[in-house]
Amino acid sequence: MRTIGMLGGMSWESSAEYYRLLNEESRARLGGYNTVPSVLYSVDFAAIVAMQEAGDWAAAGRHLADAARQVRRAGADLVLLCTNTMHQVAEEIEAAIDVPFVHIVDATGARIAAAGLTRVGLLGTRYTMELDFYRARMRDRHGIDVIVPEEPDRTLVHDVIYRELTRNRVEDGSREQYVRIVRGLAERGAEAVILGCTEITLLLGPGDSPLPLFDSTRLHVAHALDIALAQ
Q1: CA–CA separation, 150 vs 190, rounded Å?
Q2: Using CB atoms within 10 A as the burial measure, which of 13, 16, 199, 201 is most buried?
Q3: 0.90 cut: is pTM over it?
């Protein structure tokens, strides 16, 4: 199996989920004691948040490109960025390494398209919902129309991620609000919803949602393992 490099720390809760899922999926596929050869580089999330809030995506791109080089030097044969939001700088990361960069939108979009769906809702950070990097790639490469909540619900979704989930707080009241927002997306024609922030899986599961959920984290992991196991 190829060695999977994980570029994480955004947040560490998200990275821990990636590590758990990679090894659970590896054991499910291969059996026995099989786990994933992996390398994890965890950045300081506080520095990333400061760049996000300042809108300094160029600095964030340089920072994560340098981290990706370190992951590669540590032996990674492919690289995962363990966050949806920072795929805003995916091009800079991809240009910095000479091994495959597994893009989370492509992993998610392929599964949605295979399900025959063409219009889906998206929950994530404000940056993921409002910047064009996610929706444009989903539309242009996979033919999928992505809709996001109206305000003030986008703010609510964002604040729950940063004030609760990235601090390992899971609140029942926030889950109820997310379910309400999913119902609103359904009323606007969404056939399913993308959990477009890795931490949202801590809050919302299939049993909670009135629409099918596409967990971008789990789909990203599965796609990476497909590549890692390919002969």
Answers
A1: 13
A2: 199
A3: yes
